[in-house]
Design goal:
Protein name: Spy/CpxP family protein refolding chaperone
Organism: Paraburkholderia antibiotica
Number of strands: 0
Mean pLDDT: 72
Number of helices: 6
Pfam families: LTXXQ
Largest sheet: none
GO cellular component, one term: periplasmic space
Number of domains: 1
Radius of gyration: 17 Å
Keywords: Signal
Shape: elongated
């Protein structure tokens, strides 16, 4: 079950929009740890949004569609962050509770992906052919959330680390 959760967390964090960031090592475990983790998580979501905005070369005319997509990313990130915090805070969890938590996270991820798709559809339709090629390449290598690979220690193309292999695949306009 833990391996399945790690796989789900990896899939979720692959989009970066949902990645949970640990508190800095210098922060005590008390009340400062949760706000620091939340601030780090929000920064990751905003970094992902800025990365995609730049990568897709969003034009001023596309900003309304972009805003809807970015807002969906923020909302999903907040939901997933809360669920992972709840899971992390849970103590004395039974096997049944563990499975229920996992099911809740998996369902939230599926619901979030539906919201992202619904928000991305009008944005994608507004993209130029060049932007669509950029989006296709960016999302293909970074998962459905469209992000850069994070935390992957596996090998990508030609035996290179996944992150390095993904950077090789960057589309040059």
């Amino acid at each position: 079950m833990k391996k399945a959760l790690v796989m789900l967390a990896t899939a979720v964090s692959m989009g970066g929009a949902f990645a949970q960031t640990a508190a800095p090592a210098s922060a005590p475990e008390s009340t400062t740890a949760a706000p620091a983790a939340k601030a780090g998580h929000e920064r990751n979501v905003e970094d992902r949004i800025a990365y995609l905005h730049s990568q897709l070369k969003i034009t001023p005319a596309q900003e309304p569609q972009w805003k809807a997509f970015a807002d969906a990313m923020r909302s999903n990130g907040e939901t997933m962050g809360q669920l992972f915090q709840q899971r992390k805070a849970a103590t004395n969890v039974t096997a049944l509770d563990d499975m229920k938590q996992y099911a809740t996270i998996a369902q939230a991820h599926a619901d979030g992906m539906k919201k992202l798709v619904d928000a991305f559809d009008p944005l994608y339709s507004s993209l130029s052919p060049e932007q669509k090629k950029l989006a296709d390449a960016t999302f293909h290598r970074g998962g459905p959330e469209g992000g850069r690979p994070h935390g992957h220690h596996g090998k990508g193309k030609a035996g290179k680390p996944a992150a390095e292999a993904a950077s090789d695949a960057t589309v040059k306009p």
